[in-house]
Amino acid sequence: MRIWKQVILSLAVLLAGLCLWLFVRPDAASTLESLGVPRQLVSFLSPAATGDGSAAGTPSDRPVAQGAAPSGGQGAGQGGGPGGGQGGAAPRGALVVTHAVEAGTVNDRLSAIGDGQAIQSVVVMPQASGTITEIRVSSGQKVRKGDVLARLDDEEQRIERDKAQVALRSAVEKSQSYRNLQSVARLDVLDAQIAEESARLALSTAELNLRRRDIVAPIDGVAGIVAVNIGDNVTTQTSIVMLDDRSEILVDFWAPERFVTQLKPGLAVEASSVSRPGQNFSGEIESIDNRVDSASRTIRVRARIDNASDVLRAGMSFQVGMRFPGDSYPAVDPLAVQWDAEGAYVWRVDEAKARKVRVKIIQRNPDRVLVDAMLDAGDQVVTEGLQRVREGQPVRVQGAAQMKVAEAQRT
């Protein structure tokens, strides 16, 4: 390509960029004029930046009336320059969309995953060694405290009991005879009484050993899978069956450290299980651990959940939720939060003008952001049209007229 074509193409690109800058930046006209560019040339490149062209011949050093914006300034791009040749028509302002500030609560809900366990669980083991001769419980069966679950062979224990009964009868007869005879020495009578008492204790021991051949339920509950069969030789360390009292379920979960001062026994808890989607179970905190885990910065909490309908099982995982009266902060739409070199801010519409309000973000949620700022519930903050908003600049809220009409009709 020839050099003169390259020069013409470069000038065309620069001219197009300059025109785009004048169109996008409301203060571009004043910037060019401050650099010495004639106002007539600026008006030719972008009439909208300086008004409708009627003020093009006005000297750039014309004094500006008090309270009016300079020619070609922030209000110049809004449909006519202030104080121009059209009788000083007021600028229309940038068209924006606003959203009302709401009141939000921070840290108002605790959500955690917990593990469920029966309110009481017992692994049943025999109190003596022997061979299983009878099993009287099955998996899933409800049992009461004292019910016989299984039996061991007891022939030897029955014989020992019968022998103890015979020895007791002999000791009783001898003791009674010695007491009725006057010729028997007092020491012999005392020995006969001691022998009777010993026989009674031997019988009690034999009966106890016989009772221990029965494996009984120590609590009310539901039986799990029976781990033995008839004919198995078991010891006092052999697990026969596990019983769970699941009339209530205990759920252990870990709460973040910031909730420590708010957690107290008796507070309401809601829990849900993956096995029962859409169904919530109510309960309350039963106990709280006495220390915070230094590694995870959490504290262990135990909740008690009623299971009268018997739909929950020990070992289930639960989604636990709790609500707290947290601190209240203004809540704004996430689109309203902007950033600059000094930090975050929002544009608040005050008397049809934009005001920059600095904010400190407290909590981010998917639908709103909680901030610490000089904002009240009901204040309107800009969410769309932010590119053309400037401090103190007039703005036009989309749908404001319709909103006023609707409010007038309601009143």
Write the layout of secondary structure elements.
Elements: H1 3-24, H2 28-34, H3 39-45, H4 47-50, E1 94-100, E2 102-105, E3 109-124, E4 130-135, E5 142-143, E6 148-152, H5 155-180, H6 186-211, E7 214-216, E8 221-223, E9 233-234, E10 241-256, E11 268-273, E12 280-293, E13 298-306, E14 317-323, E15 328-332, E16 338-340, E17 343-350, E18 353-358, E19 360-364, E20 369-372, E21 380-384, E22 395-397, H7 400-410
Parallel strand pairs: 1-22
Antiparallel strand pairs: 1-21, 2-15, 3-10, 3-14, 4-6, 4-9, 5-8, 6-7, 8-10, 10-13, 11-12, 11-14, 12-13, 15-20, 16-17, 17-18, 19-20
Helix pairs in contact: 5-6
What would you note in describing this structure?
The chain is an alpha+beta fold and 411 residues long. It folds into 4 domains: 3-91, no CATH class; 97-105 and 328-410, conserved putative lor/sdh protein from methanococcus maripaludis s2 fold, CATH 2.40.420.20; 111-117 and 242-323, Elongation Factor Tu (Ef-tu), domain 3 (Beta Barrel); 129-234, no CATH class. 25% of the residues lie in helices and 34% in strands. It has helices at 3-24, 28-34, 39-45, 47-50, 155-180, 186-211, 400-410; strands at residues 94-100, 102-105, 109-124, 130-135, 142-143, 148-152, 214-216, 221-223, 233-234, 241-256, 268-273, 280-293, 298-306, 317-323, 328-332, 338-340, 343-350, 353-358, 360-364, 369-372, 380-384, 395-397. A 6-stranded antiparallel beta barrel has the order 3-10-13-12-11-14. The protein has a 4-stranded antiparallel beta sheet with strand order 2-15-20-19, with no helix packed on it. A 4-stranded antiparallel beta sheet has the order 7-6-4-9, with no helix packed on it. Strand 11 and strand 12 (280-293) form a beta hairpin. Helix 5 (155-180) runs antiparallel to helix 6. The longest helix has 26 residues, at 155-180. Residues 48-90 have low confidence and may be disordered.
